[in-house]
Amino acid sequence: EKGGYDHFMLKEIHEQPSTIYDCLRGRLDAEKGTITMKGIQDNIQALITAPRYIIIACGTSWHAALVAEYVIEELCRIPVEVEYASEFRYRNPIINKGDVIIAISQSGETADTLVAIEKAKEQGAFIFGIVNVVGSSISRASHAGAYTHAGPEIGVASTKAFTAQLAVLLMIALKIAKEKGTIDNTKYSRLLVEMHELPEKVEAILKNASQLKLIAEKYKHSVNALYLGRGYNFPIALEGALKLKEISYIHAEGYPAAEMKHGPIALVDDQLPVIFVATKDEYHAKIVSNIQEIKARKGKVIAIITEGDEIIPSMADDIFMVPPADEIVAPVLSVIPLQLLSYYVGVAKGCDVDKPRNLAKSVTVE
Ligand code: M6R
Protein backbone atom coordinates (compact mmCIF):
# COMPACT_ATOMS: atom_id res chain seq x y z
CA GLU A 1 0.00 0.00 0.00
CA LYS A 2 3.01 2.26 0.45
CA GLY A 3 3.95 1.48 -3.13
CA GLY A 4 7.47 0.37 -2.24
CA TYR A 5 8.22 3.44 -0.13
CA ASP A 6 9.15 3.23 3.57
CA HIS A 7 6.45 5.67 4.60
CA PHE A 8 3.26 7.21 3.28
CA MET A 9 4.84 10.64 3.59
CA LEU A 10 7.63 9.73 1.19
CA LYS A 11 5.19 8.05 -1.19
CA GLU A 12 2.97 11.12 -1.17
CA ILE A 13 5.90 13.48 -1.74
CA HIS A 14 6.89 11.37 -4.73
CA GLU A 15 3.34 11.30 -6.08
CA GLN A 16 3.40 15.04 -6.67
CA PRO A 17 4.26 14.99 -10.37
CA SER A 18 1.13 12.94 -10.98
CA THR A 19 -1.11 14.67 -8.44
CA ILE A 20 -0.27 18.09 -9.88
CA TYR A 21 -0.86 16.68 -13.34
CA ASP A 22 -4.24 15.27 -12.23
CA CYS A 23 -5.14 18.61 -10.73
CA LEU A 24 -4.41 20.47 -13.98
CA ARG A 25 -5.82 17.78 -16.29
CA GLY A 26 -9.06 18.69 -18.02
CA ARG A 27 -8.79 22.22 -16.63
CA LEU A 28 -5.67 23.94 -17.92
CA ASP A 29 -4.96 23.83 -21.64
CA ALA A 30 -1.75 25.74 -22.31
CA GLU A 31 -1.99 25.31 -26.09
CA LYS A 32 -5.50 26.71 -26.35
CA GLY A 33 -4.84 29.19 -23.56
CA THR A 34 -7.90 28.12 -21.56
CA ILE A 35 -8.72 27.29 -17.96
CA THR A 36 -11.94 25.38 -17.45
CA MET A 37 -13.33 25.39 -13.92
CA LYS A 38 -17.08 25.08 -13.56
CA GLY A 39 -17.23 26.48 -10.04
CA ILE A 40 -15.47 29.63 -11.23
CA GLN A 41 -17.34 30.00 -14.53
CA ASP A 42 -20.76 29.61 -12.91
CA ASN A 43 -19.96 32.42 -10.47
CA ILE A 44 -17.71 34.60 -12.54
CA GLN A 45 -19.65 37.85 -12.02
CA ALA A 46 -19.61 37.50 -8.23
CA LEU A 47 -15.91 36.70 -8.33
CA ILE A 48 -14.92 39.53 -10.64
CA THR A 49 -16.94 42.21 -8.88
CA ALA A 50 -16.15 41.14 -5.31
CA PRO A 51 -14.72 44.06 -3.32
CA ARG A 52 -12.61 41.61 -1.32
CA TYR A 53 -11.79 37.94 -0.85
CA ILE A 54 -11.34 36.50 2.62
CA ILE A 55 -9.52 33.17 2.69
CA ILE A 56 -9.97 30.98 5.76
CA ALA A 57 -7.99 27.85 6.58
CA CYS A 58 -5.73 26.19 9.17
CA GLY A 59 -2.17 24.86 9.18
CA THR A 60 -0.68 24.01 5.82
CA SER A 61 -3.88 25.05 4.05
CA TRP A 62 -3.44 28.49 5.64
CA HIS A 63 0.02 28.67 4.08
CA ALA A 64 -1.53 27.93 0.67
CA ALA A 65 -3.91 30.81 1.39
CA LEU A 66 -0.98 33.17 2.01
CA VAL A 67 0.56 32.30 -1.36
CA ALA A 68 -2.86 32.91 -2.93
CA GLU A 69 -3.08 36.31 -1.26
CA TYR A 70 0.08 37.46 -3.02
CA VAL A 71 -0.90 35.92 -6.36
CA ILE A 72 -4.51 37.11 -6.45
CA GLU A 73 -3.62 40.64 -5.41
CA GLU A 74 -0.90 40.79 -8.06
CA LEU A 75 -2.82 39.24 -10.95
CA CYS A 76 -6.45 40.14 -10.18
CA ARG A 77 -5.99 43.41 -8.23
CA ILE A 78 -8.59 42.26 -5.70
CA PRO A 79 -7.77 42.82 -2.00
CA VAL A 80 -7.35 39.54 -0.13
CA GLU A 81 -7.36 38.86 3.58
CA VAL A 82 -6.14 35.59 5.01
CA GLU A 83 -7.51 34.45 8.35
CA TYR A 84 -6.96 31.50 10.61
CA ALA A 85 -10.39 29.83 10.70
CA SER A 86 -10.09 29.49 14.47
CA GLU A 87 -9.72 33.26 14.89
CA PHE A 88 -12.25 34.23 12.25
CA ARG A 89 -15.04 32.19 13.86
CA TYR A 90 -14.77 33.91 17.23
CA ARG A 91 -14.15 37.51 16.36
CA ASN A 92 -17.35 38.84 14.84
CA PRO A 93 -15.63 39.37 11.48
CA ILE A 94 -16.64 42.18 9.16
CA ILE A 95 -18.09 40.77 5.97
CA ASN A 96 -19.36 43.33 3.49
CA LYS A 97 -21.83 42.88 0.65
CA GLY A 98 -20.23 41.04 -2.24
CA ASP A 99 -17.22 39.77 -0.28
CA VAL A 100 -16.26 36.24 -1.27
CA ILE A 101 -15.08 33.70 1.28
CA ILE A 102 -12.65 31.06 0.07
CA ALA A 103 -12.23 28.12 2.44
CA ILE A 104 -9.27 25.78 1.94
CA SER A 105 -9.09 22.32 3.52
CA GLN A 106 -7.49 19.03 2.58
CA SER A 107 -9.78 16.89 4.72
CA GLY A 108 -12.87 19.02 4.39
CA GLU A 109 -13.58 18.15 8.02
CA THR A 110 -11.56 20.68 10.02
CA ALA A 111 -13.94 21.86 12.74
CA ASP A 112 -12.74 25.46 12.92
CA THR A 113 -12.94 25.92 9.16
CA LEU A 114 -16.40 24.38 9.01
CA VAL A 115 -17.77 26.60 11.78
CA ALA A 116 -16.12 29.66 10.20
CA ILE A 117 -17.97 28.86 6.97
CA GLU A 118 -21.28 28.56 8.81
CA LYS A 119 -20.65 31.93 10.52
CA ALA A 120 -19.89 33.60 7.19
CA LYS A 121 -22.97 32.04 5.61
CA GLU A 122 -25.16 33.48 8.37
CA GLN A 123 -23.92 36.89 7.23
CA GLY A 124 -24.90 36.15 3.66
CA ALA A 125 -21.42 35.51 2.25
CA PHE A 126 -20.73 33.45 -0.84
CA ILE A 127 -18.51 30.48 0.03
CA PHE A 128 -16.06 28.93 -2.42
CA GLY A 129 -14.48 25.72 -1.11
CA ILE A 130 -11.12 24.27 -2.15
CA VAL A 131 -11.14 20.77 -0.77
CA ASN A 132 -9.39 17.47 -1.39
CA VAL A 133 -11.80 14.93 0.05
CA VAL A 134 -14.78 14.56 -2.25
CA GLY A 135 -18.14 14.84 -0.52
CA SER A 136 -16.61 16.05 2.78
CA SER A 137 -18.45 18.39 5.14
CA ILE A 138 -16.72 21.55 3.85
CA SER A 139 -17.39 20.66 0.23
CA ARG A 140 -21.07 20.22 1.10
CA ALA A 141 -21.22 23.44 3.11
CA SER A 142 -19.75 25.52 0.24
CA HIS A 143 -21.88 27.21 -2.43
CA ALA A 144 -19.35 26.36 -5.12
CA GLY A 145 -15.84 25.06 -5.26
CA ALA A 146 -12.99 23.18 -6.86
CA TYR A 147 -11.53 19.88 -5.78
CA THR A 148 -7.76 19.50 -5.58
CA HIS A 149 -7.80 15.87 -6.86
CA ALA A 150 -4.62 14.89 -4.99
CA GLY A 151 -6.05 11.52 -3.97
CA PRO A 152 -6.13 10.21 -0.39
CA GLU A 153 -3.42 11.70 1.81
CA ILE A 154 -2.54 9.28 4.62
CA GLY A 155 0.56 10.91 6.13
CA VAL A 156 -0.43 13.36 8.84
CA ALA A 157 1.86 15.96 7.30
CA SER A 158 0.22 17.60 4.33
CA THR A 159 2.45 17.38 1.25
CA LYS A 160 0.75 16.51 -2.03
CA ALA A 161 -2.46 18.20 -0.87
CA PHE A 162 -0.53 21.46 -0.44
CA THR A 163 0.94 21.53 -3.95
CA ALA A 164 -2.49 20.65 -5.37
CA GLN A 165 -4.01 23.52 -3.38
CA LEU A 166 -1.41 25.85 -4.86
CA ALA A 167 -2.14 24.56 -8.37
CA VAL A 168 -5.89 25.15 -7.95
CA LEU A 169 -5.38 28.60 -6.46
CA LEU A 170 -3.03 29.60 -9.28
CA MET A 171 -5.53 28.45 -11.90
CA ILE A 172 -8.30 30.39 -10.14
CA ALA A 173 -6.17 33.54 -10.00
CA LEU A 174 -5.23 33.24 -13.67
CA LYS A 175 -8.80 32.61 -14.76
CA ILE A 176 -10.21 35.53 -12.79
CA ALA A 177 -7.41 37.84 -13.94
CA LYS A 178 -8.11 36.88 -17.55
CA GLU A 179 -11.87 37.43 -17.22
CA LYS A 180 -11.34 40.68 -15.36
CA GLY A 181 -8.77 41.93 -17.84
CA THR A 182 -6.05 42.57 -15.26
CA ILE A 183 -3.44 40.36 -16.93
CA ASP A 184 -2.00 40.89 -20.39
CA ASN A 185 -2.22 38.09 -22.93
CA THR A 186 1.50 37.42 -23.15
CA LYS A 187 1.90 37.02 -19.42
CA TYR A 188 -1.25 34.88 -19.22
CA SER A 189 -0.07 32.53 -21.98
CA ARG A 190 3.40 32.30 -20.48
CA LEU A 191 2.07 31.44 -17.03
CA LEU A 192 -0.19 28.73 -18.45
CA VAL A 193 2.85 27.14 -20.05
CA GLU A 194 4.73 27.47 -16.74
CA MET A 195 1.86 25.67 -14.96
CA HIS A 196 1.83 22.96 -17.60
CA GLU A 197 5.55 22.37 -17.03
CA LEU A 198 5.25 21.95 -13.26
CA PRO A 199 4.89 18.13 -13.14
CA GLU A 200 8.13 17.54 -15.07
CA LYS A 201 10.00 20.12 -12.98
CA VAL A 202 8.80 18.45 -9.77
CA GLU A 203 9.96 15.14 -11.20
CA ALA A 204 13.41 16.64 -11.81
CA ILE A 205 13.59 17.84 -8.18
CA LEU A 206 12.61 14.42 -6.84
CA LYS A 207 15.45 12.78 -8.79
CA ASN A 208 17.87 14.67 -6.51
CA ALA A 209 16.13 13.72 -3.25
CA SER A 210 19.24 11.91 -1.97
CA GLN A 211 21.06 15.26 -1.70
CA LEU A 212 18.56 16.28 0.95
CA LYS A 213 19.17 13.06 2.85
CA LEU A 214 22.83 14.08 3.18
CA ILE A 215 21.89 17.57 4.34
CA ALA A 216 19.46 16.04 6.86
CA GLU A 217 22.26 13.90 8.33
CA LYS A 218 24.34 17.03 8.93
CA TYR A 219 21.64 18.92 10.75
CA LYS A 220 19.64 16.21 12.50
CA HIS A 221 21.00 17.14 15.95
CA SER A 222 19.97 20.78 15.66
CA VAL A 223 17.71 22.08 18.38
CA ASN A 224 16.36 25.04 16.43
CA ALA A 225 16.03 26.06 12.80
CA LEU A 226 15.07 29.29 11.08
CA TYR A 227 13.36 29.43 7.67
CA LEU A 228 13.46 32.65 5.67
CA GLY A 229 11.90 33.65 2.36
CA ARG A 230 10.59 36.76 0.66
CA GLY A 231 7.56 37.50 -1.51
CA TYR A 232 5.87 34.41 -2.92
CA ASN A 233 8.40 32.28 -1.04
CA PHE A 234 7.65 33.77 2.37
CA PRO A 235 4.71 31.39 2.99
CA ILE A 236 6.96 28.55 1.83
CA ALA A 237 9.38 29.43 4.64
CA LEU A 238 6.46 29.12 7.06
CA GLU A 239 5.47 25.79 5.53
CA GLY A 240 9.04 24.47 5.68
CA ALA A 241 9.22 25.34 9.38
CA LEU A 242 5.86 23.70 10.11
CA LYS A 243 6.92 20.52 8.31
CA LEU A 244 10.18 20.29 10.27
CA LYS A 245 8.43 20.81 13.63
CA GLU A 246 5.75 18.25 12.91
CA ILE A 247 8.00 15.54 11.57
CA SER A 248 11.26 15.89 13.49
CA TYR A 249 10.22 17.83 16.63
CA ILE A 250 13.00 20.33 15.98
CA HIS A 251 11.83 23.80 16.94
CA ALA A 252 11.59 25.81 13.74
CA GLU A 253 10.32 29.24 12.86
CA GLY A 254 9.54 30.82 9.53
CA TYR A 255 9.84 34.54 8.84
CA PRO A 256 9.91 36.95 5.94
CA ALA A 257 13.67 37.28 5.37
CA ALA A 258 13.75 41.03 5.95
CA GLU A 259 12.01 40.62 9.28
CA MET A 260 14.97 38.77 10.77
CA LYS A 261 16.60 42.03 11.83
CA HIS A 262 13.60 42.75 13.99
CA GLY A 263 14.28 39.88 16.36
CA PRO A 264 15.11 36.42 15.05
CA ILE A 265 18.69 37.38 14.15
CA ALA A 266 19.41 37.22 17.91
CA LEU A 267 19.09 33.43 17.62
CA VAL A 268 21.92 33.12 15.12
CA ASP A 269 25.11 31.39 16.28
CA ASP A 270 27.37 28.76 14.76
CA GLN A 271 24.88 26.04 15.66
CA LEU A 272 21.80 27.46 13.98
CA PRO A 273 20.76 26.20 10.56
CA VAL A 274 19.03 28.94 8.55
CA ILE A 275 17.13 27.66 5.56
CA PHE A 276 16.72 30.26 2.84
CA VAL A 277 14.06 29.85 0.17
CA ALA A 278 16.02 31.88 -2.35
CA THR A 279 14.90 31.01 -5.87
CA LYS A 280 15.50 33.61 -8.61
CA ASP A 281 12.94 36.38 -8.43
CA GLU A 282 12.80 40.11 -8.14
CA TYR A 283 14.00 39.92 -4.52
CA HIS A 284 17.12 37.91 -5.26
CA ALA A 285 19.64 40.66 -4.48
CA LYS A 286 17.86 41.35 -1.21
CA ILE A 287 17.97 37.75 -0.10
CA VAL A 288 21.65 37.54 -1.00
CA SER A 289 22.34 40.32 1.49
CA ASN A 290 20.23 38.53 4.11
CA ILE A 291 22.42 35.43 3.58
CA GLN A 292 25.54 37.56 4.07
CA GLU A 293 24.13 38.83 7.34
CA ILE A 294 23.63 35.28 8.61
CA LYS A 295 27.08 34.17 7.47
CA ALA A 296 28.67 37.18 9.18
CA ARG A 297 27.21 35.77 12.41
CA LYS A 298 28.45 32.26 11.64
CA GLY A 299 25.01 30.74 11.09
CA LYS A 300 24.79 27.68 8.86
CA VAL A 301 23.05 28.48 5.59
CA ILE A 302 21.07 25.93 3.60
CA ALA A 303 19.72 27.57 0.47
CA ILE A 304 17.05 26.45 -1.99
CA ILE A 305 18.13 28.18 -5.18
CA THR A 306 17.44 28.22 -8.91
CA GLU A 307 19.70 26.24 -11.24
CA GLY A 308 22.25 28.62 -12.71
CA ASP A 309 22.43 30.86 -9.63
CA GLU A 310 26.04 32.04 -9.63
CA ILE A 311 26.04 33.98 -6.40
CA ILE A 312 24.55 31.92 -3.58
CA PRO A 313 26.52 28.64 -4.01
CA SER A 314 29.75 30.29 -2.86
CA MET A 315 28.07 31.76 0.20
CA ALA A 316 25.93 28.90 1.48
CA ASP A 317 27.02 25.83 3.47
CA ASP A 318 24.58 23.65 1.56
CA ILE A 319 22.48 24.25 -1.51
CA PHE A 320 19.68 22.48 -3.32
CA MET A 321 18.80 23.55 -6.84
CA VAL A 322 15.35 23.68 -8.43
CA PRO A 323 14.59 24.28 -12.12
CA PRO A 324 14.00 27.89 -13.24
CA ALA A 325 10.37 29.00 -13.07
CA ASP A 326 8.36 32.21 -12.99
CA GLU A 327 8.22 33.55 -9.44
CA ILE A 328 4.45 33.10 -9.35
CA VAL A 329 4.63 29.32 -9.80
CA ALA A 330 7.97 28.90 -7.97
CA PRO A 331 6.41 28.07 -4.55
CA VAL A 332 5.12 24.78 -5.99
CA LEU A 333 8.73 23.80 -6.65
CA SER A 334 10.55 25.33 -3.69
CA VAL A 335 8.38 23.55 -1.13
CA ILE A 336 9.34 20.07 -2.39
CA PRO A 337 12.93 20.07 -1.05
CA LEU A 338 11.64 21.38 2.28
CA GLN A 339 9.17 18.48 2.52
CA LEU A 340 11.99 16.04 1.77
CA LEU A 341 14.37 17.68 4.24
CA SER A 342 11.83 17.31 7.07
CA TYR A 343 11.16 13.74 6.07
CA TYR A 344 14.82 12.75 6.12
CA VAL A 345 15.53 14.56 9.39
CA GLY A 346 12.52 12.84 10.97
CA VAL A 347 13.61 9.42 9.75
CA ALA A 348 17.22 10.04 10.83
CA LYS A 349 15.95 10.85 14.31
CA GLY A 350 13.75 7.75 14.43
CA CYS A 351 10.49 9.71 14.54
CA ASP A 352 7.16 8.28 13.45
CA VAL A 353 6.93 10.47 10.36
CA ASP A 354 3.52 9.24 9.22
CA LYS A 355 1.94 9.73 12.62
CA PRO A 356 3.80 12.40 14.59
CA ARG A 357 3.03 12.50 18.30
CA ASN A 358 -0.01 14.47 19.44
CA LEU A 359 -1.27 15.15 15.89
CA ALA A 360 -4.37 13.95 14.07
CA LYS A 361 -4.89 13.93 10.32
CA SER A 362 -8.02 15.96 10.57
CA VAL A 363 -8.73 18.17 13.51
CA THR A 364 -12.43 17.65 14.00
CA VAL A 365 -12.52 19.16 17.48
CA GLU A 366 -11.59 22.74 18.24
O1 M6R B 1 -7.62 19.19 6.39
P1 M6R B 1 -7.17 20.62 6.51
O2 M6R B 1 -6.45 21.11 5.33
O3 M6R B 1 -8.32 21.54 6.90
O4 M6R B 1 -6.16 20.62 7.72
C1 M6R B 1 -5.58 21.80 8.19
C2 M6R B 1 -4.43 21.49 9.14
O5 M6R B 1 -4.89 20.76 10.25
C3 M6R B 1 -3.32 20.72 8.46
O6 M6R B 1 -2.83 21.37 7.33
C4 M6R B 1 -2.15 20.49 9.43
O7 M6R B 1 -1.51 21.71 9.75
C5 M6R B 1 -1.16 19.47 8.86
N1 M6R B 1 -0.74 18.58 9.89
C6 M6R B 1 0.04 20.12 8.21
O8 M6R B 1 0.98 19.21 7.79
TrEMBL record:
Gene giving rise to this polypeptide: glmS
Protein name, UniProt field: Glutamine--fructose-6-phosphate aminotransferase [isomerizing]
Keyword hit for Ligase: no
Keywords: Aminotransferase, Cytoplasm, Glutamine amidotransferase, Repeat, Transferase
Domain SIS: 43-182, 215-356
Residues represented out of the complete protein: 247 to 612 of 612
Molecular functions per Gene Ontology: carbohydrate derivative binding; glutamine-fructose-6-phosphate transaminase (isomerizing) activity
Subunit field text: Homodimer.
Organism, as annotated: Ginsengibacter hankyongi
Entry keyword annotation includes Transferase: yes
